[in-house]
């Protein structure tokens, strides 16, 4: 084959019509063309056309990034090849998960107590305004 009926694409090796393009390629007319280098699956050639990412990258708003931006975390619950950036809870500036008790740092004016962001530190903790952490009180307190 040198061309295919509508709906099929010419294989990369040529001579064979297929219904799908291989990984890292997308349909363009009756041919398969390469995705952006960071994409494992895509809908076009640009960096912002990604649908899935290659190893070492994480999916974020149709692009593949090497690390999630602040306010998001890597979610790999759908498998290592489907890693994506998900938003943290609004109280968290950085986090390890969706929940309010999975924060690693807090939004403005909140203190981090263990893994939760709080307005005021609880009993047995004292606020450290320079680090915005709730630190355990001395045993003599």
Automatic annotation (TrEMBL):
Q: Which SMART domains match?
A: FU (SM00261)
Start and end residues of each TNFR-Cys domain: 67-117
InterPro entries noted in UniProt: Furin_repeat, Growth_fac_rcpt_cys_sf, TNFR/NGFR_Cys_rich_reg
Q: Which domain of life is it from?
A: Eukaryota
Renumbered ranges of TNFR-Cys repeats: 67-117
Alphabetized CDD domains for the sequence: FU
What is the protein name for this chain?
Answer: TNFR-Cys domain-containing protein
């Amino acid at each position: 084959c040198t061309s295919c009926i509508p709906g099929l694409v010419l294989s990369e090796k040529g001579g064979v019509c297929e219904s799908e393009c291989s990984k890292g390629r997308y349909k363009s007319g009756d041919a398969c063309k390469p995705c952006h280098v960071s994409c494992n699956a895509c809908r076009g050639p640009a960096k912002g056309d990604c649908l899935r990412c290659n190893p070492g990258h994480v999916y974020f708003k149709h692009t593949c990034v090497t690390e999630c931006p602040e306010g998001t975390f890597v979610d790999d619950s759908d498998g290592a090849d489907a890693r994506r950036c998900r938003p943290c809870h609004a109280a968290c500036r950085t986090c390890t998960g969706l929940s309010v008790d999975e924060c690693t740092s807090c939004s403005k004016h909140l203190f981090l107590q263990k893994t939760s962001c709080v307005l005021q530190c609880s009993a047995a903790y004292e606020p450290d305004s320079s680090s915005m952490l709730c630190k355990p009180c001395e045993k003599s307190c």
